Structures are given as C-alpha cells and as structure tokens.
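Bumping my old thread because nobody answered last time. Still need a sequence for this structure:
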C-alpha cells in the first residue's frame, strides 16, 4: 500500500500543505499519523481532495461538503450521488446559490443606475476600471 506525506499529496492535487491541514480540521480528510506525528495519506486521498476541490468550486462550503462527501462517488471524473437524500440537499444548495446570484445581479443593476445617472463629463473617469456588464 502506497502512503503519501503531506507534501506529496499537495503536489499531486495542486493544493498547499496548509490547505490540506485545513481540510483535516474541517473533517474532510482523516490522515493516519506516524509515531513521529507526520500525516500519512493513502492513494484514495488524492481522489478525495479532488472531490473536495470540485465541491468547493461549485459553491459549497466545507460544512456542507463534510455532509455530502460520504454520499458521492467518482464515475470517470463525474461526481455521482449514492444516497437518495443527497439530491434534495444539492437542490437546496443550488437554490441558495441562485438566490445569491439574483441578489448580486440586483446590486449590480442598482450600481448601473447610479453610474448612468452621473454627469456626462464623469463618464470617462472610471470607465477603464469598470468591466463590461
């Protein structure tokens, strides 16, 4: 059985050692410890870190990820639910993200109103800093 130290796991997953220690604090990784206290990871932890990174990128927080990880499996790079209740939880998380997106879009629209109300001579002053809507 191949074991990895934290530096090797960080390298193989494109993360940092600090981030891996954070995942451990959050209960997302559970490495064994050597007698000297070094963290020892298994090959399966490489895939686990990739699942964590995917779920973080999708907008889930670490508390939610800790709940859903046991109910996911990899299927050729796709995460597939293995527990019936997980689909409902993911729908709730998606609705939460949609609400956040809608709130941000409303905020952006309000800023657009303020910006467009500015006198014409102000238009070129911050235009370079603003991105396209």
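Sorry it took so long. Here it is:
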């Amino acid at each position: 059985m191949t074991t990895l130290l934290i530096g090797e796991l960080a390298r193989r997953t494109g993360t940092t050692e600090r981030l891996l220690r954070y995942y451990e604090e959050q209960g997302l990784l559970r490495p064994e410890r050597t007698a000297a206290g070094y963290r020892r990871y298994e090959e399966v932890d490489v895939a686990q870190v990739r699942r964590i990174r995917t779920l973080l990128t999708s907008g889930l927080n670490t508390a939610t990820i800790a709940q859903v990880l046991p109910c996911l499996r990899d299927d050729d790079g796709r995460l597939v639910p293995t527990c019936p209740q997980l689909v409902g939880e993911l729908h709730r998380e998606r609705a939460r993200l949609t609400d956040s997106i809608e709130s941000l879009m409303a905020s952006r629209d309000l800023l657009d109103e303020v910006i467009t109300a500015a006198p014409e001579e102000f238009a070129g002053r911050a235009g370079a800093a603003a991105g396209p809507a």
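The chain has a mean pLDDT of 91. Let me know if any region looks off to you.
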